[in-house]
Amino acid sequence: MKSYGEFCALARALDLVGDRWTMLIVRELLIGPSRYSDLHRSLPGIATNLLATRLRDLEETGIVESSDAPAPVSARVYSLTEWGRGLRAPLVELARWGVPLMASGAGEDHTRGRWLGFAIMALFPNHDPAQGSSLLPTVTVRIDTEADSVLMVSDTAGVRVSVASESTTAEIVVTGSSEEVFRTLSGHLGNGEHARVAGTTDAVRRFFALTGKALTSGAPATGQ
What we know:
Elements lengths: L8 H9 L4 H10 L2 E2 H7 L5 H13 L3 E5 L7 E5 L1 H4 L2 H11 L16 H9 L15 E7 L2 E8 L2 E7 L7 E4 L2 H8 L10 E3 L2 H11 L13
Parallel strand pairs: 4-7
Antiparallel strand pairs: 1-3, 2-3, 4-5, 5-6, 7-8
């Protein structure tokens, strides 16, 4: 493992997670534990030997751990350690800094429905326990896009996200491309088509009240 050789907290952190692909592996594991094959499929462009090397390095440094899942999975499953989960806050803040760059659309970039799970973490404000209750509307939303499903829950504990399936029940079902769903969740950041939103009149009202609370709602694109 390469080192900057500097007595600096940032430099030492980058010694561990600054290599190409490492932070995106962490992103995947923040969304949820994954098998090697799932990680490889969710990281288009990474060579299989490089993924194996990055996972080994992350395990050796105590950021990632793995275990054998029982049948019917019967595969090695990777997850973040408690220390590794501490990367959530800085990576979410970095994603928030980059969110306005999404306004130009996907273009020729790869898209994956599960990546919206991390986008949701960045789009909505952190829950502040000192407030006693969340200022966000209460609603459950299942997002179906590009063969993936994600469940978003907004309640008094803030906004949470997890991997789901098309059989997961929710008050709202949002369907469309990743770009359309992101545009809808972000409070209409950028121009173009929006996702389809299905649910009762009251649930739809609460859903759009939630997207109106997105940190990007009404914000112009920057950094172009």
